[in-house]
Design a protein that fits this description.
Largest interface: A-B, 29 and 29 residues
Oligomer: homodimer
Distance between the termini of chain A: 48 Å
Largest sheet of chain A: 3 strands, antiparallel
Low-confidence stretches of chain A: none
Chain lengths: 233, 233
DNA sequence: TTACTACGAATTGTCGACAATCTTAAAGAA
DNA sequence: TTCTTTAAGATTGTCGACAATTCGTAGTAA
């Protein structure tokens, strides 16, 4: 029984393992977006029965990575520009809330630890100059800590088990390693300061802006890729 | 193949039917909150195999009505005061967003139809004087229409398939038929006016307030019931 | 050629049985 | 007595097979 990195999923059963594996493959694009999922084929590939695979598919559906139709089957979700907007609208509202709650509920040592993490990121960033570390794992870590700091279990579940896998999927598959690294760092700093001052209103506002900027960044990348794709035809 | 009233669930398979039936029983309290669910027992009761039942349980889990632990089993969610607060914090953020979006995206005829519905509610209310109709179905209908008016599919799914069943569970089991009926009507009117004027900011604010009031109302009932329960011991 | 129908292959939904795990209760040791 | 250990019982997880439905194809008629 191990624990998964990207959500607090305890891996105890075979279907847990298949769920986590498939999730990784979908997020990273090994299993192509929009592609149909054949139950018999994948069951054989993961070495489990169809019942076990279907259990995993059910859970992938609840985090919006696949879509099912009765008697038809399962498809990996398709990353469209429209859906990106929808997801980020929801994310902004929820993570804004998380930030406001965190300003009230985060323990002082949690805040200190988060500030320390930011400093550490700054060091790493200076050395590696635009290395993808910060943008990927570091940014995720920052957001997760604030989400947890809200102490709202329902909200935490909704974001970390629900939305974030889909958001990661966009980021990974769009290849987000842009020039937003240093800007994002400053924004993170401002947010944590607001939280430290228990200024929930400001923290919420800053987080919403931060997320809007992130959305704009991904959207630009999306349009760029779409244009390249069109030119290649 | 029929359609379910409380979410756009198309009932095609046996597990669909079990899912909808169980959901109703849990929301209404026929299946007691906090109680353990025995797979063999319920499978027999619904006349399906365990596989089919488990499929339904998976979906009940994704709308937060049951909780599962690996190798241990399934429990109906317990309605606590803490959870009520958490859920309403999330609801307020999401439905506030829905309202803001609806102010931009709702079609004029949808707005008119909603105003008409409100008038109809007013008539009914005058006749039946505090009858539970408005509080239950009418209020739900109002909120659902605005949620749909946001045109954000992800948000719509999150609210109608996710949160609202849990919210209904609180309302039904707390026996919400209070004196908020007329007040709620006025609040609804103000909200739809803001939407009609495309004033998203105001609409969001009003909706958040409306939901806060609703939360306070349920919370009061919750405390009352808790006090009665304590006195009875 | 085009549209419709009917058939067959493949896929999904459902079932009953077996294996792995947890829970309960009894038995034994400190 | 109280705590630990162990074994039986029950419950969940997993499997392979069968039934129901869908999708593609070939064939027929207009």
């Amino acid at each position: 029984m191990t624990q998964d990195a990207f959500s607090e999923t305890l891996i105890t059963t075979a279907s847990d393992q298949v769920f986590v594996d498939m999730r990784r493959e979908i997020v990273e694009g090994s299993i192509e977006q929009g592609s149909k999922i054949s139950e018999p084929e994948l069951a054989k590939r993961y070495g489990v029965s169809r019942a076990t695979l279907r259990e995993a598919l059910n859970r992938l559906e609840s985090c919006y990575l696949v879509e099912r139709k009765a008697n038809v089957g399962c498809r990996v979700v398709a990353l469209t520009a429209e859906r990106l907007i929808e997801v980020y609208q929801v994310r902004s509202a929820l993570e804004g809330l998380a930030c406001r709650l965190a300003a009230d509920n985060m323990a002082p040592d949690e805040v200190q630890s988060l500030k320390q993490l930011l400093n550490q990121h700054l060091q790493t960033q200076r050395v590696k100059e635009g290395e993808s570390y910060y943008q990927e794992a570091g940014d995720l870590d920052f957001h997760f800590r604030i989400i947890k700091g809200s102490k709202n279990e329902h909200l935490i579940h909704l974001l970390s088990n629900g939305l974030y896998q889909l958001i990661r999927m966009y980021r990974v598959q769009m290849g987000m390693v842009g020039p937003r690294v240093s800007k994002a760092f400053d924004e993170h700093l401002a947010i944590i300061n607001a939280i430290e001052n228990h200024d929930g209103e400001l923290a919420e506002l800053l987080m919403k802006r931060h997320i809007s900027a992130s959305q704009a960044n991904i959207q630009a990348k999306f349009d760029l890729l779409a244009a390249q794709k069109k030119a290649a035809q």
